[in-house]
Each structure stands twice: as structure tokens, then as C-alpha cells.
């Protein structure tokens, strides 16, 4: 949680509230990551709760409130929902998560769901662990407020908030500038993840087509599963991003729409890369299965060759183990050594034949 200035709450006029005021300061709860008031692109000093923040903005008639939440419960978010007039269906989606990326409009509020992704470090990865960790990020957008709800242990927005606060001109465009920043950050993470996946797929491809290497098909299946997870995050977002870029609602400032078009272009690039990954991994799976089949056939030929070599002395020993009275050379002094020599020569001849035909 970022360090918030301990300057006390502000009243409607912007002056610091006196300690004897009847309104007690509301501490920032564990699920509220940050709550800031922005006027003309600049953040007002002080620590705010959601009620005082929106009161300040609407009293001024300008600016907006940006509240960041992390995995709030239904009970925790109810107060914020009542203050900002959030639709109950959108609030339910924000609390329970597990939603597909989407964009919905409820009266004067936009509700957007985005899937966040993070590429797991190679050192911490196991044979059954996920390569791509996913989370969710919900955004409520109103005329004078933006509320972000984050689910998952990654995709923090603290860095984005600091970056936007250093660019007052961008923040002065209003809440839609924050929505663009959130969407841009999420899509940039998509790009980073796809580049990391590309490197891993290149290594797998080199291993698959490297002569005389043993391939672990399980790793390819795991990679294909994670690419499908990434595709479920990327592809449903294309339509909402296109609607934002085309002016789906007047709540998106005209100057911000061009930025959404840039995000849409990046998203289209990611979608194309994910589609190519899926096709390439399917090809690698087929190539791996063919290579495994070839390796198994080679192993079977080796086994068959050794069985043929071993069966020759076994057959001769079996014949002379019948204990008949009248058998050739049973009474000869050199019979036993001769049989041993015959068996050894037969094994050597068979070995050379199989070796010449590359069965051994």
C-alpha cells in the first residue's frame, strides 16, 4: 500500500479539517489501496475517504476521484457502491470476479473487466505449475470518479498512478485518461508475456527438431494450455477496446479516443501472436509425437535384434538339453567346445548383420 500523506481530511473548501470537527477521520481500510482527489490534473493533498473525496469534487464542480480497491468483499464495497451509485450487477461481478473481459454501461457508469497476466519465473516453475498467472481488474467509470478493483497478487496500479500523477496534462483529461492508462498497462503486460512465451517456444522448437534429442511432450502441452489461457484474456477484449476507440459513450473524452486506438492496435498485435503460437504449438505437438513414434520404432528394432541374437544360443542349448540317448556329437570329446564356438559365431554374425542394417 502506498504511503499516504498524513495531513488530515479536507473539507469542501479544501481547508484542513480541525481536530475538533464532528466528522471523524475515516482510516484507509485494508482493502482500499489508495483514494485520491484530482483537480486540473493535480492531486490534492491530504488523506481522503470515499465520501469526503466525492463531496470535495462535487462541491468544487471540477476534478475527479480515483479509488483503488483490492479484493473487497460485498460488505466492504457496499458503502462505496451506495455513494457512487454503482449498479448492483456490476458490483456483484466486481466482488466475485471470474468474469470474461467485457464492457457494459449502466446508466451514467461504465463497467469494464480486464484480465491481467504475469509470466512466471523459470526458477519457480514446476512441471505442473502455471506458466501464465492470471488475475482480474475491474474499472467503474463515471463523470467524476473512477474506481479500480483488483483481484490477484500482481498487476498493481501503484506505478501507473505515480506515472499519471507526474503527467498532469494527461490526468486533466478526466477519468477516461485513467481508464486508458489501466487498459494500456494491461495490454503492455500482454506484450511482455507474449514475448516471453515466444522465447520459450523458440527453445522448444529447436529441441524438437534437434537430431537425437529426447522430447518431453508434457512441456508442450503445458505451454499450449497457457497459450489458451492467454487467448481467453486477449480475444474477448478486442470488441470492448474497439467500442472505446470509436466513441461508444460520451464519458470517453474525444482526446482520449485516439489513445484507445493505439491500445487497440497493440491488442490486435497480441491477438495475432497468440493465434500463431497456438498453430505453432499444434505443429510442434504433431512433430513431437512423430519423433516419439520414431524413437519407439528404433527401440523396438533394437529389442528385436537382441532377441534374435539371444534366441540362437538358446535354441541350440535347448536342443542339447533334451537328454536323448542318440544325439550327434554327444560322446565326442570336443563336442561341448564346438557347440560353444558355434553359438558364439552365430551371435557375432547376427550382431554384424543387424549393425550393418542400423538396427543396433
From TrEMBL:
Write out the annotated subcellular location.
Cell membrane; Membrane
One GO cellular component term of this record is: plasma membrane
Q: Provide the membrane topology annotation.
A: Multi-pass membrane protein
Q: Where is the composition biased (Low complexity)?
A: 14-23
Query: What reaction gets catalysed by this protein?
Result: Mg(2+)(in) = Mg(2+)(out)
Superkingdom field: Bacteria
Q: Which Gene3D superfamilies match?
A: CorA soluble domain-like (3.30.460.20), Magnesium transport protein CorA, transmembrane region (1.20.58.340)
Instruction: List the keywords (alphabetical).
Output: Cell membrane, Ion transport, Magnesium, Membrane, Transmembrane, Transmembrane helix, Transport
Membrane-crossing residue ranges in chain numbering: 303-322, 334-354
Q: Where is this region: Disordered?
A: 1-23
Q: One GO molecular-function annotation for this sequence?
A: magnesium ion binding
* Cited function: Mediates influx of magnesium ions. Alternates between open and closed states. Activated by low cytoplasmic Mg(2+) levels. Inactive when cytoplasmic Mg(2+) levels are high.
Tell me the protein family, please. Belongs to the CorA metal ion transporter (MIT) (TC 1.A.35) family.
What is the name attached to this protein's record? Magnesium transport protein CorA
- Source organism per entry reads Saccharopolyspora flava
Amino acid at each position: 500500500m502506498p504511503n499516504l500523506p498524513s495531513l488530515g481530511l479536507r473539507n469542501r473548501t479544501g481547508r484542513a479539517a480541525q481536530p475538533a470537527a464532528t466528522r471523524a477521520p475515516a482510516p484507509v481500510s485494508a482493502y482500499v489501496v489508495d483514494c485520491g482527489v484530482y483537480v486540473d490534473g493535480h492531486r490534492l493533498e491530504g488523506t481522503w475517504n470515499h465520501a469526503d473525496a466525492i463531496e470535495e469534487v462535487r462541491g468544487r464542480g471540477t476534478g475527479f476521484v480515483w479509488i483503488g480497491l483490492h479484493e473487497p468483499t460485498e460488505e466492504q464495497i457496499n458503502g462505496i457502491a451506495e455513494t457512487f451509485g454503482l449498479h448492483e450487477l456490476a458490483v456483484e461481478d466486481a466482488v466475485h470476479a471470474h468474469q470474461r473481459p467485457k464492457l457494459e454501461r449502466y446508466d451514467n457508469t461504465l463497467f469494464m473487466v480486464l484480465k491481467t497476466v504475469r509470466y512466471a519465473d523459470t526458477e519457480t516453475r514446476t512441471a505442473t505449475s502455471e506458466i501464465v498467472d492470471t488475475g482480474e481488474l475491474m474499472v467503474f467509470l463515471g463523470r467524476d470518479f473512477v474506481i479500480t478493483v483488483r483481484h490477484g497478487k500482481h498487476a498493481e496500479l501503484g506505478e501507473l498512478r505515480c506515472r499519471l500523477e507526474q503527467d498532469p496534462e494527461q490526468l486533466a483529461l478526466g477519468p477516461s485518461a485513467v481508464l486508458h492508462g489501466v487498459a494500456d498497462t494491461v495490454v503492455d503486460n500482454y506484450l511482455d508475456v507474449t514475448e516471453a512465451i515466444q522465447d520459450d517456444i523458440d527453445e522448444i522448437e529447436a529441441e524438437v527438431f534437434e537430431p537425437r534429442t529426447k522430447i518431453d511432450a508434457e512441456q508442450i502441452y503445458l505451454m499450449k494450455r497457457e497459450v489458451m489461457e492467454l487467448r481467453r484474456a486477449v480475444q474477448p477484449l478486442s470488441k470492448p477496446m474497439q467500442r472505446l476507440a470509436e466513441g461508444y459513450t460520451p464519458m470517453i473524452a474525444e482526446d482520449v479516443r485516439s489513445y484507445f486506438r493505439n491500445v487497440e492496435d497493440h491488442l490486435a498485435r497480441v491477438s495475432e501472436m497468440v493465434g500463431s503460437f497456438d498453430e505453432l504449438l499444434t505443429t510442434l505437438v504433431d512433430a513431437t509425437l512423430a519423433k516419439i513414434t520414431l524413437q519407439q520404432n528404433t527401440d523396438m528394432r533394437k529389442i528385436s535384434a537382441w532377441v534374435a541374437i539371444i534366441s540362437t544360443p538358446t535354441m541350440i542349448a535347448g536342443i542339447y538339453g533334451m537328454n536323448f540317448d542318440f544325439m550327434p556329437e554327444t560322446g565326442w570329446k570336443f563336442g561341448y567346445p564346438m557347440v560353444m564356438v558355434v553359438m558364439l559365431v552365430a551371435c557375432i554374425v547376427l550382431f554384424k548383420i543387424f549393425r550393418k542394417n542400423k538396427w543396433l
